[in-house]
Write the structure tokens for this entry.
Amino acid sequence: MKLIIFAGPPTCGKTTVIRQVIRRMLKKGHKPAYLKIDVLYADEDKIISEEFGIPAKKLYSGELCPDHCNVVVMDEAVEWAEKSGSDFLFVETAGLCLRCSPYIENSLGVVVLEATSGMNLPYKIGPMLTLADIAVITKIDLISQAEREVFRYRVIEAAKEITVVESNALYGIGIDPIVKHIERSGEIEQPMFLRGNPPVGTCTICVGKKEIGAKNHFGVLRTMEHDLFYIGE
């Protein structure tokens, strides 16, 4: 089983890229499965299942961080894909927390970034970009050549070892290099481990305490004048 995790901000074109990849993978005789992890609503699983006839599922993280959800269900997701007879599992995660990394060791991490989202976006994405293997820059037809070059430079500046692919996914441009990387990726190993360190985020706010002000909480905190500190046992 090969695990490919697609992350990126909302509306960046993740699903469009994945559909183009699946189309090419099927033509090559591969057997992909698809899992969508979102917060409140998603219909991509139905669309992909009907279009390609492959195993597809979705999970709603609800009150749980979608990247957190990604981590705690991934072993079951791989098991489901294996039982369905698939050799590749494509996971599309909402990836809303810019301090979390959704990627797993020995998986292929693909971050999708839209070129129209601003030249400073690569500086704001965090581990979703810096721990990825491939950055797919979408909607390149909507900006100038100069803007494309600046955006690409800043992606590489933020994640120096990353492979950058520019794509107009709507028309299937720039998809073949992604497929080649996917085919060359390694198989997942058990037990699985998260790539990179999770953020420091153990606090009473995470479990629903609503009072305002550091004095009302314990765990990992900060104030206007002081960086992270810990109060509690």
